Amino acid sequence: MAVTTAKKNPAPKSPAKGKSAKGKPSAADKRILVIVESPTKAASFEKYLGADYTVKASMGHLIDLPKSRTGVDTENNFEPEYITVRGRAKILKELLSEAKKSRMVLLASDPDREGEAIAWHLKNAILSKLEALPVQRISFNEVTPLAIKEAVARRWQPPAPLTRPSLNRKRRAGYWIGWSGTASRRCCGRR
User: Fold this and answer.
1) pLDDT in tens, 112-131
2) Between residues 186 and 61, which one has the greater pLDDT?
3) Partner residues linked to 56 by β-bridges
4) What totals of helices (H) and strands (E) does the chain contain, helices first?
5) pLDDT tops 70 at residue 1
6) What would the mean pLDDT of 82-96 be, rounded to a whole number?
7) CA-CA-CA-CA torsion sign (19, 20, 23, 24)
8) What is the CATH number assigned to the segment(s) 27-181?
9) Would you call 122 exposed, middle or buried from its count of C-beta atoms within 10 A (0-12, 13-18, 19+)?
């Protein structure tokens, strides 16, 4: 006579710590993405902020007016026509991919006119793909552990007027006149 044994069904595995049933990190376990302008700052920020943060560098402007044409719609109140800067699409795609894996994005570009423009463009690019993701700005004047931690604690929503000086220098009639009147097509600030 043959003896048969019934196999016990193993208890269902619970999701790993920090993972949802589908294997994705839960919202509480996602990191905060911090975007700075340079890789050197990224390394410092990562060291100062610790494991709850992912820090990436934008490497400067990722979105700007095109260099090959005016990029300003003269028929529509001089509205700018922004494009991804040539050679920067991969960086922008990587930042958007990291943003998808994050619970929040902190924009930590420099506190100057160009930094505000970089932050504004990044915020718009992120929110165009991930509308519900909180995107905030942090401001700092020195890259030290105390200054960075204080900046993160004082994160804020940037009002539009901070970005206007940089954007307006490129978009209004002065840009159009400078574009059509100069051979080098360099006018109205750095480009």
Assistant:
1) 888 988 999 999 999 999 99
2) 61
3) 35
4) 6, 8
5) no
6) 95
7) negative
8) 3.40.50.140
9) buried
The amino acid present at 124, given as its one-letter code, is N
Judge contact between 133 and 95, C-beta under 8 A.
Answer: no
Query: What's this model's pTM, rounded to 2 decimal places?
Result: 0.72
Report the C-alpha gap between 64 and 179 in whole angstroms.
15
pLDDT in tens, 67-87: 888 788 888 887 888 899 999
Position 191 scores a pLDDT of: 44
The answer to whether the CB of 19 falls within 8 A of the CB of 39 is no
Give the helix ranges, DSSP H, for the chain. 39-49, 89-100, 113-129, 145-153, 164-171, 173-181
Q: What's the mean pLDDT when you consider all of the chain?
A: 79
Gyration radius from the chain CA atoms: 23
Residue 126, judged by CB atoms within 10 A of its CB (0-12, 13-18, 19+), counts as buried
Q: Which amino acid type is present at position 162? A: L
